[in-house]
């Protein structure tokens, strides 16, 4: 009797598992992509593509692939009078595998050049501003390289002033 019950349970589980495979399902067809309109402008790359960290990266230095020249250019003072303060945002470390100097923030709706300043350290870094969905009062994300140049701890949630040039 026990043998019959266990065999029935096994067959029931096997049938349920087979239903998960769904061999009769057809591949989804993607919706056709509309051709770009003449009045649409293609987005431009704000900087050359930074070198991606190696797959074996484990330390901060291995993830930060910026060069000495890149860092010097990022901390160079922008022209006086350039830049509009968009606001102050609580900022967290973004994806460390995304190289370069950038801030993803809900304070912009299109990609732009800008800079961030840490009131805590007084340091400033020029960055690419990248739109981040959500409310303008939401937090921002910053690249590993930019956060290091600002001199704030990688585990902190610093409030940064964000400017658009």
UniProtKB/TrEMBL annotation:
PROSITE patterns: PROKAR_LIPOPROTEIN. Keywords: Signal. Residues 1-21 form the signal peptide. This is D-galactarate dehydratase. It comes from Litorivita pollutaquae. The lineage of its organism: Bacteria, Pseudomonadati, Pseudomonadota, Alphaproteobacteria, Rhodobacterales.
């Amino acid at each position: 009797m026990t043998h019959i019950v266990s065999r029935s349970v096994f067959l029931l589980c096997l049938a349920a598992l087979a239903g998960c495979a769904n061999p009769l399902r057809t591949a989804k067809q993607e919706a056709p992509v509309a051709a770009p309109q003449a009045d649409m402008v293609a987005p431009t790359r704000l900087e050359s593509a930074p070198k991606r960290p190696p797959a074996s990266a484990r330390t901060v230095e291995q993830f930060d692939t910026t060069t000495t020249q890149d860092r010097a250019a990022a901390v160079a003072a922008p022209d006086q009078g350039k830049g509009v303060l968009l606001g102050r945002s609580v900022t967290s470390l973004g994806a460390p595998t995304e190289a370069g100097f950038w801030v993803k923030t809900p304070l912009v709706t299109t990609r732009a050049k800008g800079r961030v300043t840490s009131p805590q350290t007084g340091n400033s870094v020029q960055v690419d501003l990248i739109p981040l969905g959500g409310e303008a009062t939401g937090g921002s994300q910053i690249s590993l390289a930019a956060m290091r140049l600002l001199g704030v701890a990688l585990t902190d949630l610093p409030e940064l002033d964000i400017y658009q040039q």
